[in-house]
From TrEMBL:
Source organism (scientific name): Paenibacillus spongiae
Composition bias type Low complexity, residue spans: 29-38
One Pfam entry name: SBP_bac_1
Stretch list, region Disordered: 29-64
Keyword Signal: yes
Transmembrane segments: none
Keywords: Signal
Phylogenetic placement of the source organism: Bacteria, Bacillati, Bacillota, Bacilli, Bacillales
Protein name (Swiss-Prot/TrEMBL): Extracellular solute-binding protein
Length: 451
C-alpha cells in the first residue's frame, strides 16, 4: 500500500508539472514554434516577434480648416468707400469669399476710423472686424491703450500672403508683436520734375543721374541754384517740417528711435541733414512759395509728390514731367522712400473670430506681392508721361521705406515742427533749436509710451 501511494503521488506530481507548463505556454504572446527560430548566428536570442507585422505609420493628410461666419457679416472699416473702386476680379473674389465663409462683405465707411474704433470699443463692440488705420495713429497709442490685438498667435505669419510682404511685416510690428498687415504695399514719394524746363535751362536729367547713382545732395543743390538763376522757382514742398524729415531720412538719420523710445534729433546724420535744410532756406535760398506759379507749365522745376499726385502734377500738363527718388545724402548708401502716410489693416481688440477674418480678407484681394504691385503700376500708367517715371515708381514700390512717424507721439509734433520752422526762417540754428527742444521731445515720447 505504501508503494502504491508513493507511485500515485509521483504520477500526480508529474501531471501537475505538465499542467503548469501548459498554462505557462498558453500565456505566451507568440506560438511556441516561433521560439525555436529566434536565435542568431552568435547564439543570442532575439526579442519575440509579434503575432501580426506592425503597420507602417500612415502619413496624415492635411486638414483644410473651414471657417464659417455663420451668416454674420465681415465688416471692413475704411474712409474712402472702397466698394466703389472694386474691379471685376475683386468683385468675383468677393462672391467666392461670401460663399466659402458663409458671410456677407460689408464696407463700413467712416470719416475717422481711429476715432470710431475708440468710441465703438468703449461702447462695447468695435464697429468693424478689420480696420484701415494710419500707422502714426496706431503706434503706440492704440496698442498701449489696448484697442487693437496682435495677430502672431492668430495666423501663420509664415504664409506667403504675410511673409513675402516685407514692407508691412516690418512696419506693422510694434515692440516685437505683429499688429498691422496690408496687400502688397505699393506707394511712392519722390520728386516730380519739369523735364521740359530743365532741358531749356541746359541741365542734366535727374533720372539719368539717378540711374548712374549720382543723384546726390550736391548735384541737387547745384541744379537748384542754376534754376534760380534762370528766373524759375527751383523747389516747392508741402511744408518745412516735411522737407526736414525727408532730408533726415535720406541721410540715414532719425527723428526718434522706436526701438529704444529715445529722441534721435541730435545724432550726427540727423544734424548734418538739418544743416543742409538750413542752407537750402537761408544760404542758397532756393525754396520759394510762389502761389502764382504752377507746376507743369514751366514755372516750377521740382515738387515733392506721392503716387496719386500724378493726377494733379502730370496728367494733362503741357510739359513733359519726370519722377525720381529724393537725392541721397552723404551718409546714404541707397535711394529710399521717406513716407509719412502709411496705412495698415488692424484687427480691433474684442473681435472673437480674428483667424477667420484674416483668412477671408487675404482671399478678397491680391496678396501675391509681384502681381499686386503690377496691378497698381498698370493703374498708374495712363497718368504718367514716360516709361522712365513708371520705372522709378516701380523701383520705389520695391525699395526701403523710411517711415516718418513722429506725429504718433502725443505732443511731439508740436515741439519738433516748431524747431524745423525756426530753422527754416533763420530764427534758430539747428544746434540751438535741437538742444532747446530735446527734453520736451523726450518727454512727449515717454508720455505716449507710458514710460
Amino acid at each position: 500500500m505504501k508503494l502504491m501511494k508513493a507511485g500515485t503521488l509521483i504520477l500526480m506530481f508529474a501531471l501537475l508539472i505538465n499542467v503548469l507548463a501548459a498554462c505557462s505556454g498558453g500565456n505566451s504572446n507568440q506560438p511556441a514554434a516561433n521560439n525555436t527560430n529566434n536565435k542568431t548566428d552568435a547564439g543570442t536570442v532575439e526579442p519575440p516577434a509579434s503575432e501580426e507585422p506592425a503597420e507602417e505609420p500612415k502619413e496624415e493628410e492635411p486638414v483644410t480648416k473651414v471657417m464659417d461666419f455663420g451668416g454674420k457679416p465681415l465688416r471692413i472699416g475704411q474712409w474712402w468707400g472702397m466698394d466703389a473702386y472694386l474691379n471685376d476680379e475683386e468683385k468675383a473674389k468677393q462672391k467666392k469669399v461670401e460663399e466659402k465663409f458663409n458671410t456677407k462683405i460689408e464696407y463700413v465707411t467712416v470719416t475717422d476710423t481711429t476715432a470710431r474704433l475708440i468710441t465703438s470699443s468703449v461702447a462695447g463692440e468695435p464697429f468693424a472686424d478689420i480696420v484701415m488705420i494710419p500707422l502714426r495713429e496706431a503706434f503706440p497709442k492704440l496698442v498701449v491703450e489696448g484697442y487693437v490685438q496682435p495677430i502672431d498667435d492668430v495666423v501663420d505669419l509664415g504664409l506667403p500672403a504675410f511673409a513675402d510682404n516685407l514692407v508691412t511685416m516690418t512696419n506693422g510690428k510694434f515692440q516685437g508683436k505683429q499688429y498691422g498687415i496690408s496687400e502688397p504695399y505699393a506707394e511712392s514719394h519722390g520728386l516730380y520734375y519739369d523735364k521740359t524746363l530743365l532741358q531749356k535751362l541746359g541741365l542734366p536729367d535727374p533720372y539719368e543721374l539717378q540711374e548712374k547713382g549720382e543723384w546726390t545732395w550736391d548735384q541737387f543743390v547745384d541744379m537748384l541754384k542754376k534754376i534760380k538763376a534762370g528766373g524759375k522757382v527751383p523747389l516747392h514742398v508741402d511744408s518745412e517740417p516735411l522737407l526736414a524729415s525727408i532730408l533726415i531720412y535720406t541721410n540715414e538719420g532719425k527723428i526718434e528711435d522706436p526701438a529704444t523710445n529715445k529722441i534721435a534729433l541730435d545724432e550726427p546724420n540727423t544734424m548734418e541733414a538739418l544743416q543742409f535744410f538750413n542752407d537750402l532756406y537761408n544760404v542758397h535760398k532756393v525754396i520759394h512759395k510762389d502761389e502764382q506759379a504752377s507746376f507743369g507749365d514751366g514755372g516750377i522745376a521740382f515738387v515733392n509728390g506721392y503716387r496719386w499726385d500724378n493726377l494733379g502734377y502730370v496728367k494733362d500738363k503741357p510739359n513733359d514731367i519726370g519722377y525720381v527718388f529724393f537725392p541721397k545724402g552723404p551718409k546714404a548708401t541707397e535711394y529710399v522712400v521717406p513716407y509719412d502716410k502709411m496705412n495698415l489693416w488692424f484687427i480691433p481688440k474684442g473681435v472673437q473670430n480674428a483667424e477667420a477674418v484674416l483668412s477671408a480678407f487675404t482671399e478678397l484681394f491680391e496678396f501675391e506681392v509681384k502681381k499686386g504691385k503690377d496691378i497698381k503700376l498698370q493703374k498708374e500708367e495712363p497718368n504718367m508721361k514716360n516709361k522712365e517715371s513708371l520705372d522709378t515708381m516701380r523701383k520705389m514700390f520695391d525699395s526701403t521705406y523710411k517711415i516718418i512717424n513722429y506725429q504718433a507721439y502725443v505732443g511731439l509734433s508740436d515741439v519738433v515742427e516748431e524747431a524745423f520752422k525756426n530753422i527754416a526762417s533763420g530764427k534758430e540754428s539747428p544746434a540751438t533749436a535741437i538742444e532747446r527742444i530735446k527734453p520736451m521731445a523726450q518727454g512727449a515720447i515717454d508720455v505716449s509710451t507710458k514710460k
